[in-house]
Amino acid sequence: MKAVEASVSVRYAETDQMGVVYHANYYVWFEVGRSEFFDAIGLPYADMEKDGIFLPVIECFCRYKRSARYGDRIKVKTRVVEIKPTRVKLAYEIFREGDGVLLAEGYTEHAFTGKDGRPVNLKKSHPEVWNTLVKGIGQLGLNESV
Question: For the domain that residue 61 is a member of, what is the CATH number?
Fold first, then answer.
């Protein structure tokens, strides 16, 4: 299964005094991957929010394998592992670009909500967005079950 890829340089501000990346920054990189994913399928976050569609995180997980360090260049690979009209779950893998070592893996699950924070059935409330999402996932070969 393919994944959308994003590259990030580890900044000094993301590390501790030993030059090791602080654990919460991996979730920031998941967000970078997620934004790249939605851009790649033609649904930028900003456009969805203008249409009144929001994607709050309802669950997240990260398994740390190796440390990223200041100066590393990393690659975030993002793919859809589950999609329903009311939610989407994305998986991430973070690799160091220099040697290809897997640094972390995890997922985030998001509800589709309106501006008021209430859950919506995207397929019913915004069928054009739902169709673009499903079509984009299928065209990129990001999820065999869609």
Answer: 3.10.129.10
b/e 96-135 (16+ beta carbons within 10 angstroms → b): beeeeeebbbbbbbbbbbeeeeeebebbebbeebbeebbe
- pTM here? 0.91
Write out the catalytic residue numbers: 16
Q: Would you say 28 and 89 are in contact if contact means Cβ atoms under 8 Å apart?
A: no
Residue 33 scores a pLDDT above 60: yes
pLDDT tens-digit series, residues 104-122: 999 999 999 999 999 999 9
Q: What is the mean pLDDT of the chain?
A: 93
In this predicted structure, the answer to whether residue 5 has a pLDDT above a threshold of 90 is yes
Residue 123: which domain range? 4-140
Contact (Cβ atoms closer than 8 angstroms) between residue 64 and residue 26? yes
Q: Which residues contact 67 (CB under 8 A, 6 or more apart)?
A: 20, 21, 103
Q: What angle do CA 110, 34, 134 make, to 5 degrees?
A: 70
> Per DSSP, what are the bridge partners of residue 54?
113
Q: In what order do the strands lie in the sheet containing 4-9?
A: 4-9, 73-84, 87-96, 102-111, 57-64
